[in-house]
Structures are given as structure tokens and as C-alpha cells.
Amino acid sequence: MYFPYFMAYMTAGFVVSLVVFLWAFRNGQFSDQQRARYLPLGDDTDRGPARVSRMNRLEAYALLGLACSGLLASGAVLIFSLLRVP
User: Fold this and answer.
1) Looking at the 3D structure of the chain, how many domains does it have?
2) Which residue range is the domain that position 11 belongs to?
3) What's the pLDDT tens digit per position in 3-47?
4) N or C terminus of the chain: which is more exposed, having fewer CB within 10 Å?
5) N- to C-terminal Cα separation, the chain
6) Which residues contact 5 (CB under 8 A, 6 or more apart)?
7) Residue 46 lies in a domain
8) Helix (H) and strand (E) counts in the chain
9) Is residue 41 part of a domain?
């Protein structure tokens, strides 16, 4: 009974995850892995706060929208599958 809904839900989640991963890979999020392991050890107290650009703000809103749509889709699939029980 739940199999088609589950498969559609899992496929949509996989597609969204793949799109986000490819976006991060294309923007260079994984480019400097050697430097990343030493970041927690650094002392960056002399730096001022980072400026927030318009692009960073749009990316944050896009990720928030993806998270909200994922939660809404989860709720919709759950409610729809529970209402379809004979």
C-alpha cells in the first residue's frame, strides 16, 4: 500500500540531494580539503565580522526554502498515505 508513495518520496529526496551536492561541488565547497582539517585550530579573533553579500543572502533563502519544502513534502506524503488506508 505505501510502496508507491515511499518510492516517490525517496526519489524526490535523492534528486534534491544530488542537485544540492552538484551545486556545492561546482561552487568549490570541496576544493581545499587539506586546509579544512586545520580550521578549528586557528585563532581568528583579529578578524572583523564578514560582510553579507546579496548572493549569500539569496543562497540562504534558497536553502531555507528547500528545507521548508522538504518538511512540507514529508508531511504531505505522510498525511496522504495515512488517508488512503482502506
Assistant:
1) 1
2) 1-25+53-86
3) 777 788 888 889 989 999 999 889 888 887 787 777 777 776 666
4) C
5) 9
6) 77, 80, 81, 84
7) no
8) 3, 0
9) no
